[in-house]
Amino acid sequence: MNQMSHVSSLSVPGATRATRKEAASVEFRNVTKRYGKVTAVDSVSFSIAPGELVTLLGPSGCGKTTTLRMIAGLEMASEGQILIGNRDVTNLSAADRDVSMVFQSYALFPHMSVLENVAYGPSVQGVPKKDAQAMAMEKLGLVGLTGLEKRAPSELSGGQQQRVAVARALVLEPQVLLFDEPLSNLDAKLRRRVREDIRELQQSLNLTVAYVTHDQEEALAVSDRIIVMSNARIAQTGAPRELYEEPADLFVADFIGDANILDGTLLDREGTEARVRIGGMVLTLPHRGANPGPVKLAVRPDAVLLEEGPAGDGVLAGTVRKASYLGTQVEYDVESPIGTLFVVQYGRKEPIAPGTPVSVTLTRQRGVALIPNA
Fold first, then answer.
1. Are strands 26-35 and 38-48 parallel, antiparallel or unpaired?
2. Among 195, 196, 136, which Cα is nearest to 171's?
3. pTM of the model
4. What is the pLDDT of residues 113-137, one digit of tens each?
5. What is the DSSP track for 24-77?
């Protein structure tokens, strides 16, 4: 039983009233968090504009969840300053910050109905029961759960439970909404649906959202901007396309989507462009501040084109070693003079058989970038 009605339900009458509170900015100024001798977050500075969805992305242990918990007031900063709506909240408790969080586990009360779960926040703040339930019903309408208010959490699907958690976070109309790995308990198809719902809800209500995930595809799909974290610091901040097409270093190139990291030689520069030799090929690419000499390049799997048959001038000779048919695409491992290449081709019905000689070319337009800090 899966009643994942899409958030076209956002058009309910209550949606206009839910926007009455102004979205707030979030700012970190040289914030550090230590646990004894361990530094979990190391002098991090960033800002989130009002009504913006910013994702903190990175591998386990990089500091992203600690950063989110410091926005919430669930962890206190060891150094630095945290501002929400230009108000210094560094030393304020979670209850005084006007922030709500949707936890990875949803943290629903199993003995309460859906309505009671969502009305719980206003009730403990002293709102009369009738008013608290009216507020809860409005938010359940926003997330498409009208009609399910009497059910227990155990009677809902995973996607529906996630929506209850969102409604409960929204009911107090916080200045900032926080998501901690909100889709990790859902299957792949449901994750795509729910992330679209979250994004539509955020844009419709003009919410300021900080969103934590380790899933690169999820971050690319929902974010206005992404903050990539590595080893307790910020590796790069930018729009999804910027991070994918112009990674600042090898870590970001390898972490944001798949990338072939290749060696090349920057021959010369003219204006913003450079000629770069990769094996027997010469490409013209933005030099991104790199100087003549050895360079590293990030080459996306779909920027590598394969043609069956021997290679001609100006292209690489390769041999298919492995081919995996995945329905909408075929993935290849191709042996070449510049190393083993991971290649993705879309829309091809018949995979090239392993052992087949191929010519290999790279297309700048589809994802080849110099790494300036390699």
1. antiparallel
2. 136
3. 0.85
4. 999 999 998 998 889 999 999 999 9
5. --EEEEEEEEEETTEEEEEEEEEEE-TT-EEEEE-STTSSHHHHHHHHHTSS--
